[in-house]
Specification:
Number of domains: 2
Order of helices and strands: EHHEEEEEHEEEEEHEEH
Shape: globular
Oligomer: single chain
Helix content: 10-25%
Number of helices: 5
Largest sheet: 7 strands, mixed
Structural class: alpha+beta
Number of strands: 13
């Protein structure tokens, strides 16, 4: 159930006498989190797609735990409402850190939990979180029927976690390179259905055995309160490249014009050839 933003009666620093594992059940925390503080954070993110519209308020559509062996993070499904009478949904994983020198640019909310001062941050900044997601995918049980569903392709020969890093600047997603061989793409703007990237990648890899696209390796999905499967993350084979299609096109066009110049070709004298 969504929680519409209300004016919080709390003032920073925010103090809560509950464990991190129970924090999302604290209404005072939800009120503080969904305040202007979260709005200011969201609108500054590269993955935020509503920059041309005016934000009205943010609702917490629902949340779920991303956890393993007592290590707990939260995945939030946020509904961003605009004054132009439409909305968008976004995925934001959060973590609590107490290191004052960590993730200074990605802090969302300063708070104290059970006397421990720290910050709520985007969990993707934590290597421990990235490692957890990868390990949950490669150890996923077949035919998972739980609410938070991890899936590993039967064709993927996984290796133990070694390292992870951000792939680079992106607009709508956040991609993490794992072990230099895999990529986990976390979808930021989400839709109430399976993501087409996920469906196409899995179909081509597992059903058709198609080799000319990055192989599907695994995924993370959530079954929402309407019993709809929402794709949160997609893991694929990392395929080395020498640039992108845009750079390739520019270089090829540059060759064409260089050829015209070197051969002293007057383009006005080039015959017009009908295409059809």
């Amino acid at each position: 159930m969504a929680n519409k933003k209300q004016e919080s009666s709390l003032e920073p620093p925010y103090v809560f006498d509950v464990e991190w594992e129970n924090l999302m059940d604290d209404k005072k925390f939800i009120d503080a989190f969904l305040s202007e503080i979260l709005e200011d954070y969201v609108v500054k993110q590269r993955w935020y797609g509503g920059k041309s519209s005016k934000l009205k308020y943010i609702e917490l559509q629902e949340y779920f735990r991303i956890q393993q062996r007592g290590e707990v993070y939260y995945g939030l499904l946020l509904e961003v409402n605009f004054k132009e009478a439409f909305y968008q949904h976004y995925f934001l994983p959060i973590a609590f850190v107490s290191d004052e020198s960590f993730a200074e640019k990605d802090r969302i909310l300063p708070l104290s939990i059970k006397g421990q001062e720290g910050f709520i941050i985007d969990a993707l900044n934590l290597e421990a979180f990235r490692k957890l997601v990868y390990e949950r995918i490669i150890t996923a049980e077949p035919n998972d029927t739980t609410r938070v569903q991890y899936h590993k392709s039967l064709t993927f020969q996984s290796t133990p976690y070694e390292s992870s890093k951000f792939m680079g600047l992106e607009q709508s997603n956040t991609s993490i390179i794992i072990n230099g061989r895999s990529v986990i793409k976390f979808f930021r703007r989400i839709y109430a259905d399976k993501n087409p990237d996920y469906e196409m990648s899995r179909f081509l890899s597992e059903r058709k055995g198609y080799k000319n696209t990055p192989a599907y390796q695994g995924s993370l999905s959530i079954i929402d309160s309407d019993n709809v499967s929402i794709t949160i993350a997609l893991m694929q084979e990392l395929v080395p490249n020498q640039g992108d299609a845009w750079d390739f096109t520019l270089k090829e066009l540059h060759k064409v014009f260089n050829n015209l110049e070197n051969k002293h070709i007057n383009i006005d004298q080039i015959p017009v050839i009908p295409l059809f």
